[in-house]
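Appendix B.2, paired examples.
Example (i):
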Amino acid sequence: MPVRIIVADSEAIFRVGMGKIFALEKDLEVVAQTETLQQTLSAVSDTPAEVVLFEAGLSPNPPDAVADVIRRAQPGTKVIVVAHHTGEEETVEYLRRGVRGILTRSVSPDLLVRCVRKVVAGETWLDNQGVNWVIEAYRSQAEQGTTPKQQLRLSEKEMLIIGGVTQGLKNKDIAIEVGTTEQVVKNYLRKIYDKLGVSDRLELALYSMHRRLLDGYVPPSGRENRAAPSPIGGESIGQTDESPAPWSDQTAKKQ
């Protein structure tokens, strides 16, 4: 079944252009087009879709509009913001509101298609500058934080799952490492998000790195083999050069 897309843009030329781009892809399908915020809110409420491409210019307050779209959308719908330009504050605020990708209106067709596929796969799409802004925002938040790490009361499985996310592992790979099912990992992630006050894998990974949640933590397998040499020459199993972090697009290529 193709990925269903709602294109919300005030300019007909962009709606038509995006429609033609997606029409060339067998796995992508535009199921609705809107040109106002009110039309968009109605469309996301009535039309099942995996992705909404939302033009920031549809509202004088795009972050609030995005939050309204996400609230009105059917479960599982992900929003990608398309804007002429986004600064540091807007980028961070969009992500906090639940946006899963940010594109400029000058994005090339191949990056547009790739962005949609990555977001549907559960990743967050940002360019290099956006990634740097988000990291800086969470570094500042971590420096201001006062909650002691020990008060978080994370369980063994939760620590294992956080470690997997930070390494860039997918849920099915984390499930294998933990010895459970992919659905159980998803359930744990929801609990972890609630505990730490984050909303997705990107925020969890950044929170973990800047709060140093995993400092000094050794997983059970590591405890058992701490004194024994690895049978594969000491190489760790986890993220490789070929497995990108879940919040980037293979090195977060600039659009």
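Example (ii):
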Amino acid sequence: MAKKEEKKPQQPAPEETRAEEKKKEETKAEAKQEAAQETFTLTKEQMEKMEGLAKALADEQDKYLRLAAEYDTAKEKEAIYTDAKIDTIKSMLGVYDNLERGIAQYADEESPHRKGLEMVFKQFKECLAKLDVKQMEAVGKPFDPEKHSAVVHVEDERYGENEVVEVLQQGFTLGEKVLRFAIVKVAN
């Protein structure tokens, strides 16, 4: 029978072993240095102070989030209020038109009915003014499609080009927002 040869593990060269050992030692030294940099000792007093500061920071963050939420809620409520105000005022503009027409029906300036309607109309205008509703000034001004709706066009040399000659239905604004376009007659 043939002799079995036993295989001996090959031993690395002594230079390779030293390089590996040196590398391991460097890695251990770096790990110790990093651990030394990250590790520190605190007194009980310092620890309590840090915990107190962490709690104070958490409280301030909570306050900030609550304040931001309240601000968003207030903006939403304001938008809802403004929309409701606009809808309410728009529905009342028909009353304005009817009071204006009612006064125009009485040619006699001394008629008690006309005077009564004028007083009610004046009071109604004051209510609109308190709500910051303003009448648009249109007659004699250039036609503005952002504020006016032209339904009649007339040729008249007495007026300039695209000049509003007559207001057929009054327009209104609430602040900068147009509530109702003025229905107008435009020249040239």
